[in-house]
Specification:
With about 60 residues, the protein is mainly alpha-helical. It has helices at about 1-30, 35-60. The chain is rod-shaped.
Length: about 60
């Protein structure tokens, strides 16, 4: 049961990380060439995605 919860938390973090990276790209196009917000949100999304990936690898499979 515990591994299943960890697996789904990891998957949720991966999805949120991908969403943050997509937000960073959209925010970049609205900032008139300023890349600061894109770098901050993109890096945060990257870290969150890989943290979720680590949790899913730690949990193994969802069963």
């Amino acid at each position: 049961m515990f591994k299943t919860v960890i697996f789904y938390i990891g998957r949720a973090l991966q999805l949120i990380g991908m969403g943050m990276a997509a937000f960073a790209i959209f925010a970049y196009f609205n900032q008139d060439g300023k890349s600061g917000i894109m770098l901050k949100w993109g890096f945060a999304g990257l870290v969150e995605f890989y943290f979720g990936y680590g949790l899913t690898a730690l949990a193994g499979s969802k069963k």
